Amino acid sequence: IVVFILLLFLNGRVTVWVAMGIPTAFLATLAVVWLVGGTINMISLFALIMALGVIVDDAIVVGEDAYAHHKMGEDPIFASEGGVRRMFWPVVASSLTTVAAFLPLMMVSGPMGKILGDIPFVMICVLIASLIECFFILPAHLRNVFVRGVGHRTHPWRAWLDSTFDAFRDGVFRRAVTAAVEYRGLTVTSGVVILILSIGLLAGGRVKFTFFPTPEPHIVYANATFASGTSRDQVNAFLEQLRQSLNATEKDYGERVVQQAVFRAGALAGDQNPRQGDQFGSITVELTPSEQRSVRTEAFIKDWQARIQVPAGMENFVVVARKQGPPGSDLMLRLAGQDAHTLKLASLELQATLRQITGVYGIEDDMPYGREQVLFNLTPAGEALGLTLDDLARQLRAALDGKLVQLFQAGPEEVEVRVRLPEAERANLSLLDRFTVRTPSGDWVPLATVARWDTRQGFEALRHAESQLAVEVSAAVNGAVANSNEIMSGLAETTMPALERKYGLHWSFQGSAADQRETMADMKTGLMLGLALIYIVLAWVFGHYGWPVIIMLAIPFGLVGAICGHWIMGIDLTILSMFGLFGLSGIVVNDAIVLVEFYRHQRERGMPVREALVNAACLRLRAILLTSLTTIGGLSTLMMETSLQAQFLIPMATSITFGLAFTTVLALLWLPAMLSFYESGHARLMHWLGRPAIV
Prior knowledge:
Layout: H1 2-9, H2 12-19, H3 21-35, H4 42-71, H5 76-102, H6 110-116, H7 118-136, H8 138-147, H9 156-182, H10 184-203, E1 219-226, H11 232-253, E2 258-267, E3 276-287, H12 297-307, E4 314-321, E5 331-337, H13 340-355, E6 360-365, E7 369-378, H14 380-384, H15 389-400, E8 403-410, E9 413-419, H16 423-426, H17 431-434, E10 436-438, E11 444-446, H18 447-450, E12 451-459, E13 463-465, E14 468-477, H19 484-503, E15 506-509, H20 512-542, H21 546-552, H22 554-569, H23 575-604, H24 609-619, H25 621-639, H26 650-689
């Protein structure tokens, strides 16, 4: 597609040498990746695909300028060398601004930085390699092409394409640019209105935001937790029911969905904190690759759960897919407080709320109930005798767990000798009615005299976070029917404040939400740095403080195309969309740089502002269209990718493709009108200061 677009605008031999920059830059980039210990993976390959159209931009600008001058009769060596000289600073500026846009993305830390770090690294390597090839290799090839008579023996198709383009440029396009500059107020206002409307699509929820849409998983876990003390036979019976329901579900589909299933009694599967015990049972189901089945994973989980009959005594049963991509559940809320039972009650109430939300499944917490506990308190008589809870606990522990009385060496082994009650007595709660304790005075008294006790269900594990007792409630979200950010927003507005008041706890979003906070904070810092670097590069190249601001006004309008593109494609904005917007901010200024550079040349020759703006837009129409269309063409195939494993990459391609398409029109029509406003204001300022100004 990229080569075909080049052939529409350039001579065949020029196209070949311009396109040769692609394998040259790719090989140089792969050499650098090899040197730093990188790999060829889905992310680095995506970066190369994204760079496909960007690579030829530098060569296009140089080659198109040299080709145009040679067609006007310039000597081959002067045409090729002149193209490099004339386009040196615009090309350097465009490459450096794109590098400045991608460089801050290397500052992103955490899981997202590790996953997506290859994108800015590969793009920067490609851009630098392309710049070197453009200045030191391409001119010699262009000279040889011109020496062989390019421009003297013109193919009829080439002549027809060139004449058609010239007619469009000097006719329809020139009139459009002239009108845009003539009615500059209407042009600028129209652009601002379109920007506001596009932001309204995002603010109004027409285009949603999903932090990281992971590829469709193919591993499913079914974890069952029975009440403590449940026999292994009862767990095995339920696992057999799961096996039968799994087979029946697959049979209904009429195709092979399950590749294999592994059953485990006595342990849970896929848990970050693995637990073992007779009351646990699990199944790990591996589905066939997503491209080989018509049934989606979420639909399979829903249909399978509908066939499962949960028996009595089940404390928790969860069927959830193993998430790919960054770690952490789609929804994870941390509840922190002082009392474990209060936190558990709040957790159960929150889980009940989540079960009422469509698209939320796999709901569980990390504070499962455990065995029954006996809680002791001293009676007034015990306190009067001088006993403390510490004394009571120490004596009970010695009786039930044993007291260490001796250590001795038996060969290479160290043997402990403990004194404790016989196992038959320790296994029966009636022991407490016969147990006696020793008071500080040395007397022995019945336990029932100095203490009272009660029983309640305990917890298998108690966890702490930031020095506080905490429980984390996690859940998965079916992205096809619900949006995790909208769910979190609803929970933060209504559910969580009510739980906070009712149970006196503290809460926070964790998991993907915590990664999102960290990543977005890094990207905000990177955005400021990237914009500052772009401005410094533009101010350095043009030697002007005002023009860089006008050029950078094109960056927000890239957001217009990106948002509208996601709306048209029917996909959510993601973190990869944000990465695309960063890259887009460097790419969109390239067209504006080329136009402003030619405008400067026209002004240096003494041409009036309005005529210089129109001529600059017309003279650089071919180069601007070529750089934009090749980038769009290079990414278009990725946007049409049907592989479910690559769907999470499409938002980034959508941001760049649609954003660049819109900003190309913006650079050719809106930018001249904005420059006209700026030059008029600058002229009035110079007149007010009493300095001469060319109008």
